[in-house]
Design a protein that fits this description.
40% of the residues lie in helices and 21% in strands. It is α/β, with parallel strands linked by helices and 249 residues long. The chain has a single domain (24-248), classed as 3-Layer(aba) Sandwich (Rossmann fold).
Length: 249
């Protein structure tokens, strides 16, 4: 069942009552980074890799702490809102500095296999050094072409990497391919909001509309099981980006 979302107003009324398309918020238009739609996918991936290999990537873990995404994200696992128990093969896509991987090795079963992937070899090196845990495996990989067999994982975490693809379906279809039927995914991605536009500017990523993303997931047999929020305040103000648990049918 698709969750009930607030209906987005798609039209405004002219002076004579005629409907016209509603313009996107001016702030978002001015701030959101459009690089992903202006260059080829290959060129875009190269530029994104440069961002994460460079100084910005070096401060990614610190940024996650300052924004509270890392400590608040841990609540999903600690309180069982995204339950890792029983998962034996876990894929962490776009591991970055290992923000989610740190929670995975803390809350997953002791015998769980955890594979971390990222497009940036330098980010994986930083994550390996930062976490220093033999249970973690690190693989350089592109979300749109994962080097894993079909129906391989029973749990996936995808934290703030989907927005580095021109279309969500490119990544979600590949994730659905490597997930077993019944496998669960924790999806976190940047929303088309004011804070999302600012995130887009800093990390050269795009944003996604929540309702459109739900439809894309359902078309790929990724059932939008439940929405997640960092805190009740985030839910009230619709802040913190898109966070959800998906289940492969």
């Amino acid at each position: 069942m698709i969750p009930k979302l607030r209906r987005a107003r798609s039209t405004t009324r002219g002076p004579h009552g005629s409907a016209r398309p509603k313009r996107r918020k001016v702030f978002n238009q001015l701030v959101e980074n459009r690089l992903i739609s202006r260059v080829s996918f290959e060129e875009y991936r190269s530029k994104v890799r440069d961002v994460y290999d460079g100084p910005q990537g070096a401060f990614l873990a610190t940024c996650s702490l300052v924004s509270l995404h890392a400590p608040l994200g841990e609540r999903f696992f600690r309180k069982g809102r995204f339950d890792l128990r029983g998962a034996k093969r876990i894929l962490d896509v776009g591991s970055g500095a290992g923000q989610l991987a740190k929670h995975l090795i803390k809350y997953a079963d002791a015998d769980a296999e955890v594979i971390c992937t990222d497009l940036s070899p330098e980010m994986l090196r930083r994550a390996r050094n930062r976490l220093n845990d033999p249970r973690l495996q690190f693989v350089v990989a592109d979300l749109s072409q994962l080097p894993f067999p079909d129906n391989h994982f029973d749990c996936v975490t995808c934290g703030y990497v989907l927005e580095h693809l021109p279309e969500a379906q490119l990544g979600l279809a590949e994730l659905a391919r490597v997930m077993k039927p019944g496998a669960r995914m924790l999806l976190l991605t940047t929303e088309d909001s004011i804070s999302g536009a600012m995130t887009s500017r800093m990390w050269r990523c795009r944003t996604y509309n929540r309702r459109e993303l739900v439809r894309t997931c359902e078309q790929l047999d990724l059932h939008w099981n439940k929405e997640l929020w960092f805190t009740p305040m985030h839910k009230v103000f619709r802040a913190g980006g898109i966070c959800a648990e998906l289940v492969k049918r």
